[in-house]
């Protein structure tokens, strides 16, 4: 789950991480008052779950309170297009008005879960304000990486190592160490998967501030953090993904035309790969999980078929915890209740597979039963 910048900064302050002061403005008059409180100047920021807002016109500087009000009016309700939103853009529903900082240097700092090492990793660079992918591609030597041992956590020398690499010294170095250690504590205690501060700024007064902040959280841990879950903005998520979450379905919309319903994330990835291998394009990632019911299967079909681009559905189930007969009954029920109008290719293996195939065969529905995963992919691509 992702959250907005203004929410991330609220969490940063809770953990003693210094950040730029700001407030959400609910109308243009409030934007004017906030700017006046900051001495007449303000940074006005559109709030969406995507980076690159500045290049798209979503971060602008106001020289007067009236200009802040005008920028609020211009941003609220705009369709903000950035590299990360794609050409369709995102509707701006919240505007954040911030106190300008006297910036001396812009740096980069992030914490993430490195899947390669299965450890939390600190990344830092002197190239702040630039997308880290660009730095990695053009000047990888400017990225410093520190891997944190989970048995001991972030050690003092590692925090200092990062700050030395960023060129901090004196009192600013000490502030930087406190910043890094508090940021790590926030990351660990809230089950984050990413915390990115870009830019991390050093002010003319030697302060260390988070000028922008991006945070992502492990969905599987949100039950432990109701205060984080309260930050969720479903307007920033695909409607199908929001709907799927109500039924504990793991769904991600893609841009292909073959719908996928699979049990298990690894099998779902393999299914999408083999569809691509045979010249097709998956329309979604959908993992119904190991203990899905007939209702879950039916709702999975309904969500997949909400996408008008879907021209066929490939069901790939390996029955372990989940039985093939339950899946087959769910498919039949969905086909009858929803009225599926596209080809449905079904591959079943594992527990109760023969019972599942019998249910499909006796349903009287035009379902295409495959003998294996490759056969299923070939038939799905050929059916379009």
Total strand count, please? 18
Total number of helices:
13
Radius of gyration (Å): 25 Å
Q: Stretches where pLDDT falls below 50 for ≥5 residues?
A: none
Give the CA-CA distance, first to last residue. Answer: 34 Å
Helix content: 25-40%
What class do helices, strands and sheet pairing give? alpha+beta
Query: What percentage of amino acids are in beta strands?
Result: 15-25%
The coarse silhouette is elongated
Description of the molecule:
The radius of gyration is 25 Å and the shape is elongated. The protein is an alpha+beta fold and 384 residues long. Strands 7, 8, 9, 10, 11 and 12 form a 6-stranded antiparallel beta sheet that branches. The chain has a 4-stranded antiparallel beta sheet with strand order 1-6-2-3, with helices on one face. The protein has a 4-stranded parallel beta sheet with strand order 14-16-17-18, sandwiched between helices. It has 13 helices and 18 strands. The two termini are 34 Å apart. Helix 11 (324-339) links the parallel strand 16 (312-319) and strand 17 (344-350). The longest helix is centred in the middle third of the chain and has 20 residues, at 170-189.
SSE arrangement:
Elements: H1 5-14, E1 22-25, H2 28-37, E2 42-46, E3 59-62, H3 65-75, E4 79-80, E5 90-91, E6 95-98, E7 103-114, E8 119-125, H4 132-138, E9 143-147, H5 156-165, H6 170-189, E10 192-203, E11 208-210, E12 214-217, H7 226-229, H8 239-245, E13 250-253, E14 258-262, H9 265-277, E15 284-287, H10 294-304, E16 312-319, H11 324-339, E17 344-350, H12 353-361, E18 367-369, H13 373-382
Parallel strand pairs: 14-16, 16-17, 17-18
Antiparallel strand pairs: 1-6, 2-3, 2-6, 4-5, 7-8, 7-10, 8-9, 10-11, 10-12, 13-15
Helix pairs in contact: 2-3, 5-6, 10-11, 11-12
């Amino acid at each position: 789950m992702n959250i907005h910048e203004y929410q991330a900064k609220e969490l940063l302050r809770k953990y003693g991480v210094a950040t730029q002061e700001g407030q959400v403005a609910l109308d243009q008059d409030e934007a004017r008052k906030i700017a006046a409180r900051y001495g007449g100047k303000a940074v006005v920021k559109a709030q969406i779950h995507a980076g690159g807002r500045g290049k798209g016109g979503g971060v602008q500087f106001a020289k007067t309170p009236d200009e802040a009000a005008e920028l609020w009016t211009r941003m609220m309700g705009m369709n903000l297009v950035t590299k990360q939103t794609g050409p369709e853009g995102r509707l701006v529903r919240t505007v954040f008005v911030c106190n300008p900082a006297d910036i001396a240097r812009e740096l980069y700092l992030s914490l993430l879960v490195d899947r390669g090492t299965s450890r939390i990793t600190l990344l830092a660079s002197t190239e702040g304000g630039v997308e880290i992918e660009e730095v990695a591609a053009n000047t990888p030597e400017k990225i410093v990486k520190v891997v944190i041992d989970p048995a001991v956590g972030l050690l003092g020398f590692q925090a200092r190592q990062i700050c030395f690499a960023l060129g901090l010294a004196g009192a600013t170095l000490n502030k930087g160490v406190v910043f890094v250690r508090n940021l790590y504590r926030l990351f660990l205690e809230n089950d984050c998967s990413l915390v990115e501060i870009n830019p991390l700024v050093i002010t003319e007064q030697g302060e260390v501030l988070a000028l922008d902040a991006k945070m992502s959280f492990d969905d599987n841990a949100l039950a432990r953090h109701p205060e984080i879950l309260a930050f969720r903005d479903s307007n920033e998520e695909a409607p199908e993904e929001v709907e799927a979450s109500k039924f504990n379905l793991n769904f991600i919309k893609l841009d292909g035309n073959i719908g996928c319903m699979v049990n298990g994330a690894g099998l779902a990835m393999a299914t999408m790969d083999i569809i691509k291998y045979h010249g097709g394009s998956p329309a979604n990632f959908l993992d119904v999980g190991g203990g899905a019911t007939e209702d879950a299967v039916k709702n999975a079909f309904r969500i997949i078929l909400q996408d008008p681009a879907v021209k066929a559905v490939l069901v790939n189930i390996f029955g372990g915890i989940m039985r093939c007969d339950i899946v087959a009954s769910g498919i039949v029920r969905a086909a009858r209740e929803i009225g599926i109008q596209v080809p449905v290719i079904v591959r079943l293996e594992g527990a109760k597979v023969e019972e599942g195939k019998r249910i499909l065969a006796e349903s009287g529905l035009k379902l295409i039963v495959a003998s294996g995963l490759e056969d299923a992919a070939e038939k799905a691509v050929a059916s379009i």
